[in-house]
Amino acid sequence: MPPNLSLFIFFLFLTFTSMGSPGLAIGVNWGTTASHPVPPPKVVELLKSNNITKVKLFDADPLVLQALSGSNIAVTVAISNSMLKSLNSSKKAAESWVHDNVTRYISSGGGSRVKIEYVAVGDDPFLLSYGEQYHPFVIGAAINIQAALSRAGLASDVKVVVPCSFDSFQSESGLPSKGHFRPELNKTMVELLTFLSKRHSPFFVTISPFLSFHQNKNISLDFALFKGTAHPRNDSHKTYKNSFDLSYDTLVTALSTVGFPEMDIVVVQIGWPTDGTANATASTAETFMKGLLDHLHSRVGTPLRPRNPPIEVYIFSLLDEDQRSIATGNFERHWGVFTFDGQAKYHFNFGQNAKKLVNAQNVEYLPTRWCVANNNKDLSNATARALEACSAADCSALSLGGSCYNISWPQNISYAFNSYYQQHDQTPNSCDFGGLGLITTVDPSVDNCRFPIELRTSHSSSLLGPHFCLCMILLTLNTFAILFSFAG
What we know:
Largest sheet: 8 strands, parallel
Radius of gyration: 24 Å
Oligomer: single chain
Order of helices and strands: HEHEHEHHEHEEEHEHHEEHEHEEHHEH
Strand content: 5-15%
Strand order of the largest sheet: 5-4-3-2-1-12-11-8
Shape: globular
């Protein structure tokens, strides 16, 4: 080979190896478990104005999919866990679901097509707290949905995936080299990974540095936040400088252990909440998000997968959702990068060179009024009324470490009253509370504790009324009792 040609090939090799793999795709999760959601067309405007090109849904809401039509945003539609059993047992049900929620949107003409790229079978169906209630149905449902897509001629355009929870894999020692899937999941995981591998589909998984920090005293806040001051963790000859890499490589080991060391990974949920518990603040979330995206865009990868980061990452989540379950913690309602009404809580570079996020525009609010405790009344029974209000509304900001935790009595009573009043569309009787409530046009917000006014759009007809089951009262009693114990 001539010397000049050898030199040319050498430099060509250096060029290609330095380029690495294709650019990392960053998307967001768009959940709609809110009493007064931002209208879907406004959310699509929000996505486009922030150059967000991928979105994962938790269902296949027709209004959401219609709003996404023609947007050229890549979409993951999802099947709820409650549907898995019927889709597992009936090919006809799977065909019907695919027709109604995929084919009709992909086949639309005139530039109104929805760019559906994934169907997510289930919503974390392997979550430990669910037990094994969904395990028998996941693989069968995925196979039937895949067959339905094939019959519809969409198998080459749409991939079937199964989102797996952060606790589907584990390491008792905390070391990635000891990572494995939960024992009761092994058989199902091998079946799932075989299914995915045959179709070149990725493994969808949640990675949650926040929950790892929240639940594990051995993980420091600095380690979770990608800070250089964090004490590194050593595993044999591998050094881990952050919680993300530690969790990710624990999964890589788990995949290798069951025979799939090269499986592509999509991090389908990752984020940091901004309220509802200690260390859940906008500034902490901003630090985490900047650290995460800087780490991902550096493409350094992890010790077990150097220069090979996940192929896609979906931030959790786009907007706050005041109806999400708080079984895990009150922070569950505050994962949004944006507030419930589409206003940025903090700023970071989403990966499209725009460091300042763009807020939702022209959202419509209910009238400028609030419900507060009437100081001219005997408030000796106000605590019980506030607890009732919280069990049917959202008082998560009042919890220990929350943005409204430090407000004094009776302002915390007013917060509870207002939350109920706003979620029930400001109807006069929703500010009664046995005569203890008072409607005002003076903003009662205190420092960082915002007393919100809800959006005009409402799904609140499905909310519980003023009389609610004992179980809901018990659920909130433990959280809020400390807040009202000093009443009077």
